[in-house]
Amino acid sequence: MILSDLMQAPVYDPDGSRLGRVIDARFVVDGAPGQLLAHARLDGFVVSSHSGSSFLGYERNEETSPWLIARFLRWRHRGSFLVRWDDIERVSAEAIRLRPGYRRFDPRLRESAAAK
User: Residue 105 phi/psi, 5° resolution?
Assistant: First the structure.
């Protein structure tokens, strides 16, 4: 399976309720530098219940220009959250299921959005 197979995949909580779909993947670069770059590992997925499109990078910083686009994208992606790889119970080509006790993190990676 490749990452593009998981984009738009539905995400379900442990009870089988649909939470949204995958709109982005988050990687962490934390290994020793190799010949070209340090190794990256998958940290988690950004899940949105309102939109299937990307944030276009507006969630990663305090970018506000052009203000109309920034405001629209933040409204469109309201309620989106990051789920970390450790909170994923099962990944298949059809769906992603979260483990019991998973946590929702702010997609800006600043803090937990809401503990589940």
Answer: -110, 150
